[in-house]
Amino acid sequence: MLRWRWLLGSIFASSVLALSGCATVDGPGSGTSGSGRPPLQTFNHAMFHVNMGLYDYVLEPVSTGYKAVTPGFVREGVSNVFSNVGMPYIFINDFLQGRVQQGMEDMSRFLVNSLFGVGGLIDVADKLDLPMHDNSLGVTLGVWGVPQGPYLVLPFYGPSSLRSLPGLAMVMFTGPAYYLTSTPAQYALSGMGVINTGYVDGPKIRMVQEAVDPYQFMRNAWEQHEQYLISGGVVSKSQLLEGLSLPPPTGTTPAGNESSVNTKGKH
Question: Distance between CA atoms of 21 and 3, rounded to whole angstroms?
Fold first, then answer.
């Protein structure tokens, strides 16, 4: 069944690439095609509203019910497990980027929680001050100089880009569901993952919905976070302002003379 998912995902990715064939391969700052409009803008806006509708009418009610019928320690344990099973994807990309220390920290976190935290149910690594990072194959490609390409909103998945598409396959191959042979177990694990995602990401989604321009706010936040990860935690003041959709303060120095802010730390 998961092989069929991979095939459907490949077909979807190919369709998106075909749609973007006439789009300029832009980075985060440019975002316009030859016609002056951002590439895939119509598609992205439609998908954004579809995703927000799915959250409002499906995922949020389910998450509310999940919170009502489960005690807090159960929800925390479930979130810990899903966070832990995602760690191989993260530390593999750490090493692919040449960030050995970060990779060792993330791999140690995975091993400690898997061995001593009952498969990740208990976050033992946090008590040992092992930091948790965020990472992806899109970030890895960005570190090695691959341009972002047009911004892309995916059904169910949310903000992404053409550069990040191969990471969807990597997520699948490094996740436990791909290796389960029982179809009911696959459905159960996938369903629980969706419910947990809705519960964990609910506050972030509501923050987006409350923004003056929700679509632009989500795009700016995603692109700035992606650039933050690629740079290893070093962003300029102008990038921070751009990510917040704020005008630059008066009296700022020219872009070429900007100082940098090192915000490297836990993600």
Answer: 27
